[in-house]
């Protein structure tokens, strides 16, 4: 019996599958599986030191662009090579990052999701405090005390890797092709204090409840990331690329706004503010979102219908006595006020041919004094409307309507608007009853957006007030220069943002 048993055991050994011997590189990445791999102790023992840290080239690092592999274009498990700045997927034996490491002798990589550093092809984690500045550039974090000191007068300038000095918040935005109409709006909003302070703290909007499948919330996250980079005091360079932000804009606007085609800043501003308000779960209440708290005002609109001009006086009087032609009142909210420029003169004599028409800002604001009437025409009816502002917001946005679309082409009104940079008193257009409800009515200019050139081929630039230095800057994409406030009033202003002056200064 014994020989038979030995023969049976021998046959079982021959039919049993071979035992697979695992190697360290066969263990899946922690980021790829979501689980901590076994036998990782040998890796962590070696993670404290890395001989390749001096190969990191901070001048080539740019984390503003979309986080996808430069070879496979995937967004999953992407690493940045800290030697050349390119993005690659994975770090296992057959991944693009591994291949790049072996082929180019580039060894230090950063996982763009977990913010962990690794050395390839040895595949061990690097733990070194000297790399914290790279992590901060990728994902700047602001504490409450940091935000409170952003506008302090004693705030010092920051320095880039190449030694260039810059003021946080006053950095250029890259123009990818034709996105200057977006850049000026993003720059202007970054200096509206409630908007800036809200989005610099990621926790303010990280836990907002959203319906299932609401991927449009990416727009809020991208705007927060952009503001944190604009105000980052430890940037490697003195400019930021809004690439990821603009990609979110193109996607969630269904290509209404693009980076390859010039657009209108006021259309983008209106869409952007409404989109942020909606994604922050805001409603019609004034305090439901940071957008409404900053910009939402209220007004009453009085509308009366005009009788047709071809009727005689008796017929007109009969129509005016009917209910249809009585003045109707409605309450409305607004995020910005549209100011109408007077028509430019059609004929100018030889002595005045070089004179540019001008108008005072208060003449434009008279539209909202509850007395002035403006005629509006539809395809069959004419109406007279007057506007009464009942509640002023903390920040007033003025849209100076310069473009008029005719049947054949787009016309631009070049009239210069004369406006003071400080102490603009909006109380002058309020009724006595509404003025009593406002303790302060004086506003200071904080942002001014200008259009230059022809209607269809012009460019946009903006003027920003840096409160920490009380210095005005002109920004046109990557170009940032200081400017005197007197020069701002000579430009063709298109959009202006005024901040309420909550003190008794003259």
List the helices and strands and how they pair.
Elements: H1 2-15, H2 30-33, H3 41-44, E1 78-81, E2 87-89, H4 96-104, E3 108-111, E4 117-119, E5 124-126, H5 132-138, H6 144-148, E6 158-159, E7 165-166, E8 172-173, H7 180-189, H8 193-200, H9 203-206, H10 218-230, E9 239-240, H11 243-252, H12 265-279, H13 290-295, E10 297-306, H14 313-320, E11 328-334, E12 337-340, E13 358-360, H15 361-365, E14 374-377, E15 382-391, E16 395-401, E17 403-405, E18 410-412, E19 416-418, E20 424-425, H16 432-435, E21 442-452, E22 459-466, E23 471-476, E24 479-483, H17 485-488, E25 493-500
Parallel strand pairs: 8-9, 12-16, 13-19
Antiparallel strand pairs: 1-2, 1-3, 3-4, 4-5, 6-7, 10-11, 10-15, 14-15, 16-25, 17-18, 20-21, 21-22, 21-25, 22-23, 23-24
Helix pairs in contact: 7-12, 10-11
Radius of gyration: 31 Å
- Largest sheet entry: 8 strands, mixed
Indicate the overall shape: elongated
Strand content: 15-25%
Report the span from N to C terminus.
114 Å
How many helical elements? 17
What is the number of strand segments? 25
| Sequence stretches where pLDDT stays below 50 over 5 or more residues | 1-46
Average pLDDT, all residues: 87
What share of the residues lie within helices?
25-40%
Structural class: alpha+beta
Keywords: Cell cycle, Cell division, Hydrolase, Isopeptide bond, Metal-binding, mRNA processing, mRNA splicing, Nucleus, Phosphoprotein, Spliceosome, Ubl conjugation, Ubl conjugation pathway, Zinc, Zinc-finger
Domain UBP-type: 48-145
InterPro entries: Papain-like_cys_pep_sf, Peptidase_C19_UCH, Ub_carboxyl-term_hydrolase, USP, USP39, Znf_RING/FYVE/PHD, Znf_UBP
Protein name: Ubiquitin carboxyl-terminal hydrolase 39
